[in-house]
Amino acid sequence: MRFWVAAALTVTVAACSTRRDDREVTRAPSRDIPGSVAAAPAQAKPQAASRPRIAVLGDSLTAGLGVAKASSYPPLLQERVDAAGLDYEVVNAGVSGDTSAGGLARLDWALDGDVRVLIVALGGNDGLRGLPAEELQGNLAQIIERAQARGITVILAGMEAPPNYGRDYIVSFHKVYPALAAKYHVALVPFLLQGVAGDETSNQRDGIHPTAAGARIVADNVWAVLKPIAEARRRPNT
Fold it and tell me: Rounded to two decimals, what is the model's pTM?
């Protein structure tokens, strides 16, 4: 089984015991989420838009590494937003290789324009690199605080660590997301890759990045949390 499923199962046990045709396709690397870290500076700053925005701040899982741009999950969220009659522009602010520190460093870029909702989908690269869970928590906390200071509603998407750093690290990493959601009263997608991780038909050959079909499952995971928030935030002064 793929390592994210193993991690998720380990976390579950621990928790119980302690309580193309777009054709602009980026080739996926062998076993690492990072992809091309150098791609970030080349991206143009989002231009101000007349419609309110939903920004998705993430790494290559959000950027859509290995699939056509239209097949990554933010454009699929746009389809759902449009179908629901909600007047938002969904902005894909995913950059391959980003850790939580990288996301924090480019937060102002991601929040350009009239952003009403920020989806924070970071942490996969922190886990793959074995970065301290405390560091992850601190970076995500700053992102949430800075967004909330601007009146932006935050949705936090959870991630799991791979099992090779041991049980203690997996459990401490897992606890970051629900702890932040409780502290800052933000909505939580418990695991961004729920229903995708470990499923060979939903993952590319690297076992990390979703296929186009997998991205649709990810979009469903996020949409279940985003829909009621987007509906509420479309009202004036909310």
Answer: 0.81
